[in-house]
Protein backbone atom coordinates (compact mmCIF):
# COMPACT_ATOMS: atom_id res chain seq x y z
CA UNK A 1 0.00 0.00 0.00
CA UNK A 2 1.22 3.48 -0.86
CA UNK A 3 0.23 6.81 0.68
CA UNK A 4 -1.34 8.20 -2.51
CA UNK A 5 -4.88 7.38 -1.38
CA UNK A 6 -6.50 6.58 1.99
CA UNK A 7 -6.49 3.12 3.54
CA UNK A 8 -9.88 1.87 4.76
CA UNK A 9 -9.76 0.23 8.19
CA UNK A 10 -12.88 -1.39 9.66
CA UNK A 11 -13.51 -2.49 13.23
CA UNK A 12 -16.24 -5.09 13.75
CA UNK A 13 -17.80 -6.42 16.94
CA UNK A 14 -15.37 -9.28 17.45
CA UNK A 15 -12.88 -9.77 20.23
CA UNK A 16 -9.48 -8.20 19.57
CA UNK A 17 -10.35 -4.52 19.00
CA UNK A 18 -6.74 -3.80 19.98
CA UNK A 19 -5.56 -5.20 16.61
CA UNK A 20 -7.45 -2.42 14.82
CA UNK A 21 -6.30 0.24 17.23
CA UNK A 22 -2.64 -0.71 16.95
CA UNK A 23 -2.85 -0.97 13.17
CA UNK A 24 -4.43 2.48 13.14
CA UNK A 25 -1.68 3.80 15.41
CA UNK A 26 0.99 2.58 13.00
CA UNK A 27 -0.80 4.02 9.95
CA UNK A 28 -1.36 7.44 11.53
CA UNK A 29 2.16 7.69 12.95
CA UNK A 30 3.48 6.85 9.48
CA UNK A 31 1.37 9.53 7.78
CA UNK A 32 -1.18 7.34 6.03
CA UNK A 33 -4.67 8.74 5.47
CA UNK A 34 -7.25 6.48 7.09
CA UNK A 35 -10.99 6.03 6.52
CA UNK A 36 -12.02 4.24 9.70
CA UNK A 37 -15.39 2.47 9.74
CA UNK A 38 -16.72 1.38 13.12
CA UNK A 39 -19.41 -1.27 13.55
CA UNK A 40 -22.25 0.06 15.66
CA UNK A 41 -22.01 -3.15 17.70
CA UNK A 42 -18.29 -2.81 18.49
CA UNK A 43 -18.63 -0.23 21.28
CA UNK A 44 -19.45 -2.76 24.00
CA UNK A 45 -16.43 -4.94 23.24
CA UNK A 46 -14.11 -1.91 22.89
CA UNK A 47 -15.24 -0.64 26.30
CA UNK A 48 -14.87 -4.04 27.91
CA UNK A 49 -11.54 -5.04 26.37
CA UNK A 50 -9.53 -1.82 26.23
CA UNK A 51 -11.71 0.81 27.92
CA UNK A 52 -12.05 2.75 24.69
CA UNK A 53 -15.35 4.56 24.15
CA UNK A 54 -16.63 3.93 20.61
CA UNK A 55 -20.21 4.95 21.36
CA UNK A 56 -21.78 8.32 20.42
CA UNK A 57 -21.22 10.04 17.09
CA UNK A 58 -18.25 9.82 14.75
CA UNK A 59 -16.79 13.17 15.86
CA UNK A 60 -16.55 11.95 19.46
CA UNK A 61 -15.28 8.54 18.39
CA UNK A 62 -12.49 10.22 16.44
CA UNK A 63 -11.54 12.36 19.44
CA UNK A 64 -11.61 9.37 21.79
CA UNK A 65 -9.39 7.31 19.51
CA UNK A 66 -6.87 10.11 18.90
CA UNK A 67 -6.67 10.73 22.66
CA UNK A 68 -6.36 6.98 23.38
CA UNK A 69 -3.44 6.75 20.94
CA UNK A 70 -1.98 10.12 21.95
CA UNK A 71 -1.82 11.22 18.31
CA UNK A 72 -4.05 14.31 18.44
CA UNK A 73 -1.72 15.98 15.90
CA UNK A 74 -2.84 13.43 13.25
CA UNK A 75 -6.49 14.58 13.30
CA UNK A 76 -6.49 15.60 9.63
CA UNK A 77 -5.38 12.09 8.59
CA UNK A 78 -8.37 10.31 10.14
CA UNK A 79 -11.97 10.18 8.91
CA UNK A 80 -14.34 8.15 11.07
CA UNK A 81 -17.61 6.63 9.87
CA UNK A 82 -20.26 4.48 11.49
CA UNK A 83 -21.32 1.37 9.61
CA UNK A 84 -24.81 2.73 8.90
CA UNK A 85 -23.38 5.80 7.09
CA UNK A 86 -23.71 4.13 3.72
CA UNK A 87 -23.36 7.46 1.87
CA UNK A 88 -19.70 7.85 2.96
CA UNK A 89 -16.92 7.98 0.35
CA UNK A 90 -15.73 4.33 0.76
CA UNK A 91 -19.16 3.23 -0.56
CA UNK A 92 -18.21 4.22 -4.08
CA UNK A 93 -15.69 2.65 -6.42
CA UNK A 94 -15.08 6.13 -7.83
CA UNK A 95 -13.47 7.10 -4.50
CA UNK A 96 -9.88 5.92 -4.81
CA UNK A 97 -8.37 4.00 -1.90
CA UNK A 98 -5.34 1.79 -1.39
CA UNK A 99 -7.60 -1.03 -0.20
CA UNK A 100 -9.15 -2.18 3.05
CA UNK A 101 -8.22 -3.96 6.28
CA UNK A 102 -10.92 -5.43 8.54
CA UNK A 103 -9.52 -6.10 12.01
CA UNK A 104 -10.90 -7.85 13.93
CA UNK A 105 -13.28 -9.36 11.39
CA UNK A 106 -16.36 -11.05 12.87
CA UNK A 107 -17.66 -14.24 11.32
CA UNK A 108 -20.85 -12.29 10.61
CA UNK A 109 -19.04 -9.73 8.46
CA UNK A 110 -16.99 -12.41 6.68
CA UNK A 111 -20.23 -14.25 5.90
CA UNK A 112 -21.88 -11.09 4.58
CA UNK A 113 -18.90 -10.26 2.34
CA UNK A 114 -18.74 -13.80 0.98
CA UNK A 115 -22.43 -13.54 0.05
CA UNK A 116 -22.04 -10.13 -1.58
CA UNK A 117 -24.35 -8.62 1.03
CA UNK A 118 -23.32 -4.96 0.89
CA UNK A 119 -25.94 -3.70 3.30
CA UNK A 120 -23.76 -1.55 5.57
CA UNK A 121 -20.68 0.63 5.00
CA UNK A 122 -18.22 -2.08 6.08
CA UNK A 123 -19.59 -4.78 3.79
CA UNK A 124 -20.18 -2.30 0.96
CA UNK A 125 -16.60 -0.96 1.16
CA UNK A 126 -15.31 -4.56 1.10
CA UNK A 127 -17.55 -5.34 -1.87
CA UNK A 128 -16.15 -2.27 -3.64
CA UNK A 129 -12.58 -3.44 -3.01
CA UNK A 130 -13.44 -6.81 -4.55
CA UNK A 131 -15.07 -5.30 -7.63
CA UNK A 132 -12.30 -2.72 -8.10
CA UNK A 133 -9.61 -5.40 -7.53
CA UNK A 134 -8.14 -3.50 -4.60
CA UNK A 135 -6.40 -5.30 -1.72
CA UNK A 136 -8.75 -6.58 0.97
CA UNK A 137 -7.38 -8.05 4.19
CA UNK A 138 -9.45 -9.70 6.90
CA UNK A 139 -8.23 -10.59 10.37
CA UNK A 140 -10.77 -13.26 11.37
CA UNK A 141 -11.29 -13.67 15.12
CA UNK A 142 -13.10 -16.75 16.30
CA UNK A 143 -12.16 -20.00 17.91
CA UNK A 144 -12.88 -22.80 17.35
CA UNK A 145 -13.91 -22.39 13.71
CA UNK A 146 -16.86 -24.28 12.24
CA UNK A 147 -17.18 -25.42 8.63
CA UNK A 148 -19.31 -22.39 7.71
CA UNK A 149 -16.55 -20.04 8.89
CA UNK A 150 -13.92 -22.03 7.02
CA UNK A 151 -15.96 -22.25 3.80
CA UNK A 152 -16.62 -18.49 3.86
CA UNK A 153 -12.93 -17.77 4.35
CA UNK A 154 -11.96 -20.19 1.59
CA UNK A 155 -14.37 -18.43 -0.76
CA UNK A 156 -12.83 -15.05 0.09
CA UNK A 157 -9.31 -16.42 -0.20
CA UNK A 158 -10.09 -17.70 -3.71
CA UNK A 159 -11.22 -14.16 -4.58
CA UNK A 160 -7.78 -12.89 -3.57
CA UNK A 161 -8.66 -11.68 -0.08
CA UNK A 162 -5.77 -11.83 2.41
CA UNK A 163 -6.76 -13.93 5.41
CA UNK A 164 -4.52 -12.99 8.35
CA UNK A 165 -5.64 -14.74 11.56
CA UNK A 166 -4.34 -13.05 14.72
CA UNK A 167 -2.01 -15.94 15.53
CA UNK A 168 1.42 -15.29 16.96
CA UNK A 169 4.54 -17.02 15.68
CA UNK A 170 6.73 -17.50 18.73
CA UNK A 171 10.00 -17.33 16.77
CA UNK A 172 9.60 -13.55 17.05
CA UNK A 173 10.92 -13.61 20.68
CA UNK A 174 7.46 -13.01 22.09
CA UNK A 175 7.56 -12.17 25.81
CA UNK A 176 4.53 -9.95 26.40
CA UNK A 177 1.00 -9.53 25.04
CA UNK A 178 2.24 -6.31 23.43
CA UNK A 179 4.89 -8.30 21.52
CA UNK A 180 2.18 -10.71 20.40
CA UNK A 181 -0.06 -7.87 19.17
CA UNK A 182 2.89 -6.26 17.37
CA UNK A 183 3.60 -9.59 15.65
CA UNK A 184 0.04 -9.75 14.28
CA UNK A 185 -0.01 -6.07 13.27
CA UNK A 186 3.36 -6.59 11.57
CA UNK A 187 1.86 -9.46 9.57
CA UNK A 188 -1.16 -7.33 8.59
CA UNK A 189 1.23 -4.62 7.37
CA UNK A 190 3.55 -7.12 5.63
CA UNK A 191 0.77 -8.58 3.48
CA UNK A 192 -0.07 -5.03 2.41
CA UNK A 193 3.57 -4.29 1.54
CA UNK A 194 3.90 -1.70 4.28
CA UNK A 195 7.46 -1.55 5.58
CA UNK A 196 7.64 -2.18 9.33
CA UNK A 197 9.88 -3.61 12.04
CA UNK A 198 7.19 -4.51 14.56
CA UNK A 199 8.47 -8.03 15.14
CA UNK A 200 11.74 -9.88 14.94
CA UNK A 201 12.02 -11.60 11.57
CA UNK A 202 13.49 -15.05 11.13
CA UNK A 203 16.96 -14.84 9.66
CA UNK A 204 19.87 -17.24 9.95
C1 LIG B 1 -18.17 -10.16 24.13
C2 LIG B 1 -18.43 -10.58 22.70
C3 LIG B 1 -17.38 -11.05 21.95
C4 LIG B 1 -17.58 -11.48 20.65
N1 LIG B 1 -16.51 -11.94 19.96
C5 LIG B 1 -16.69 -12.38 18.70
C6 LIG B 1 -15.58 -12.88 17.97
O1 LIG B 1 -14.43 -12.91 18.42
N2 LIG B 1 -15.80 -13.29 16.69
C7 LIG B 1 -17.03 -13.24 16.12
O2 LIG B 1 -17.16 -13.64 14.96
N3 LIG B 1 -18.10 -12.77 16.79
C8 LIG B 1 -17.98 -12.33 18.06
N4 LIG B 1 -19.05 -11.84 18.75
C9 LIG B 1 -20.38 -11.81 18.10
C10 LIG B 1 -20.53 -10.57 17.21
O3 LIG B 1 -20.46 -9.40 18.02
C11 LIG B 1 -21.87 -10.61 16.46
O4 LIG B 1 -21.88 -11.68 15.52
C12 LIG B 1 -22.17 -9.31 15.76
O5 LIG B 1 -23.42 -9.42 15.10
C13 LIG B 1 -21.11 -8.91 14.73
O6 LIG B 1 -21.47 -7.66 14.21
P1 LIG B 1 -20.62 -6.86 13.13
O7 LIG B 1 -19.88 -7.86 12.32
O8 LIG B 1 -21.65 -6.13 12.34
O9 LIG B 1 -19.74 -5.92 13.87
C14 LIG B 1 -18.87 -11.40 20.06
C15 LIG B 1 -19.93 -10.88 20.82
C16 LIG B 1 -19.71 -10.48 22.13
C17 LIG B 1 -20.85 -9.91 22.90
Describe the structure.
This protein has 204 residues and is α/β, with parallel strands linked by helices. The protein has a single domain, classed as Flavin prenyltransferase-like (Rossmann fold), CATH 3.40.50.1950. The protein is 39% helix and 14% strand. It is built from seven helices and six strands. It has a six-stranded parallel sheet, sandwiched between helices. Helix 6 links the parallel strand 5 and strand 6 (162-163). Helix 1 (17-29) packs across helix 7 and helix 4 packs across helix 6. The longest helix is centred in the C-terminal third of the chain and has 15 residues, at 177-191. The two termini are 28 Å apart. The mean pLDDT is 96.
Question: Could you give the topology of this structure?
Answer:
Layout lengths: L6 E5 L5 H13 L4 E5 L4 H8 L7 H12 L8 E5 L16 E7 L1 H9 L5 H11 L4 E5 L6 H12 L3 E2 L13 H15 L13
Parallel strand pairs: 1-2, 1-4, 2-3, 4-5, 5-6
Flavin mononucleotide binds next to helix 4.
